[in-house]
Amino acid sequence: MRDAMSRFPYLRQDFTASIVVFLVAVPLCVGVAVASGVPAELGLVTGIVGGIVTGLLPGSSLQVSGPAAGLTVLVFEAVSEFGLPALGVIVLVAGLLQLVMGALKLGRWFRAISVSVVEGMLAGIGLVIIAGQLYAAAGLEAPASGIDKILGLPGAAVDALGSTAALASLAIGAGTVAVVVLWKKLPKAAQTVPGALAAVILATLATLAFSLPVATVEVHGLLGAIQPPGLDAFGELASPALIGTILAFTLIASAESLFSAAAVDRLHDGPRTQYDKELMAQGAGNAVCGVLGALPMTAVIVRSSANVGAGARTKASRVLHGVWLLLFAALLPSALALIPLPALAGILVHAGWKLIPFRSVVALWRSHRGEALILVVTAVSIVAVNMFEGVLIGLALAVIKTAWEASHVKLEIVDKGAGPVQAYLSGNATFLRLPRILDSLEALPQDRPVELDLSGLHHLDHACRTALEDWAERHSRVGTDPVKVTEPPKAAGRAEVAEPPKVTAV
């Protein structure tokens, strides 16, 4: 025993933390799988792989991986469009791409993705999850698209009010959300049991005690649920739509995992995340999940923060949590059949709500309205269009905003009333600011000579240079002296001014 304690000095802390993370993971693994339209056991398979395979690999020592609510919408769309056998191919190839990106040391570059885009992505996912799971809580079938889910809620509410079974189902879902929210207000001793698990247990007991007409989880058995993709499924790789879905999985899973790693690093004082190795660890886990036909994985902030909060010190806690999931799935599969589906829907409604960064939107609107706009547009695009295109729209807006801000340029016009008009350009002159520059220069008097000083420019792109040369040639045609241009990087001293000049800033 002493020898074991000397080799694993933090075994006690890691063992306790693994139990906590296991209890947090069970309802989330099952809930994400059911919401994704796949057998419940596949969520547990991904949790097992995330704990044992990814947990053993280097990268981030304390963050925990598994099926994530953030990919629920994308997985559901993929399974609906391509079928369950193709899911394994999608996850496998996405994992291989993550391995390649990690080997090429691209992991650190994911930190360059605008935080507003990531938060907008999570907000959009949260909205779609909430809307979709409200239908599931009532035992109704949800529309396919995100916008239809939201627009169809009033009609679904009317249908639910007219059905006793739907009202019973809604009561279980609402009760689950209430327990999860109120559980944090109980004494610390009670909170040793995670709120999500307590809510599912109470919902299950209520359903059994009152014999409520509520749908429960379908159980296929662990081995029966695992379906490795066949050769026919790999033939789908010729489809451009499938390739787009794989890229979406890769981008979103990688970004979510690495942003989660950065967040987890702020929760503890242990070793920092090695981003490229963590990306490879996620890739290895997803490759294994793909071979098993399971759900994709990401690092999950809920499980990771529970791991740190429970006192975990090394990666042993996350590996042990995977072992407990394996034992549960192998020894107690029939327990899943007792879980009411509206309880899982309630868990995911709460999870979706937590994905929406309300405080960030308010703070950004006060200090950086452009970033707030990117966040909102990304979220709305995901709801209105789909996940992949919504994220691309957000990334495009972030790039355009950055380019616009980087092209800051100032134009000063100095007119002393006699002699040449002096125009001073400083900053970064790019095509984005060209219309304003030309408007100001073309407004200068045509019968006066002009001196154009470009020495204050840090950057002058080809479009601006060509346009300025054309303007100078046109201005010189009317009989005045040719425009005198001082090129960057030559320094041009500004002449002393005898009387206060008229200065116009653009």
Structure characterization notes:
- The chain is an alpha/beta fold.
- The relative contact order is 0.17.
- Mean pLDDT is 86; it is low at 490-506.
- Helix 5 crosses helix 13 and helix 21 (434-442) runs parallel beside helix 22 (462-475).
- The chain has two domains: 13-321 and 342-399, no CATH class; 409-505, 2-Layer Sandwich (Transcription Regulator spoIIAA), CATH 3.30.750.
- The protein has helices at 2-7, 11-35, 40-56, 72-82, 84-103, 115-137, 146-151, 153-161, 164-183, 195-210, 222-225, 231-234, 240-265, 275-292, 301-309, 316-331, 341-355, 358-367, 369-384, 387-406, 434-442, 462-475, and strands spanning 65-66, 298-299, 409-415, 421-429, 450-460, 484-486, 502-505.
- The protein is built from 22 helices and seven strands.
- The strands form two sheets. It has a five-stranded mixed sheet, with helices on one face. A two-stranded antiparallel sheet has the order 1-2.
- It starts with a helix and ends with a strand.
Keywords:
two-stranded antiparallel sheet, disordered C terminus, 506 residues, Transcription Regulator spoIIAA, alpha/beta
Mean pLDDT: 86
Give me the number of helical elements.
22
Major sheet description: 5 strands, mixed
Q: How helical, in percent, are the residues?
A: 55-70%
Which value, in Å, is the CA radius of gyration?
Answer: 29 Å
Strand portion: 5-15%
The total of beta strands comes to: 7
Tally of structural domains: 2
pLDDT < 50 stretches: 490-506
Order of helices and strands: HHHEHHHHHHHHHHHEHHHHHHEEHEHEE
Query: Termini, distance in Å?
Result: 76 Å
Strands of the widest sheet, in order across it, are 6-5-4-3-7
Shape: elongated
Structural class by helix and strand composition: alpha/beta
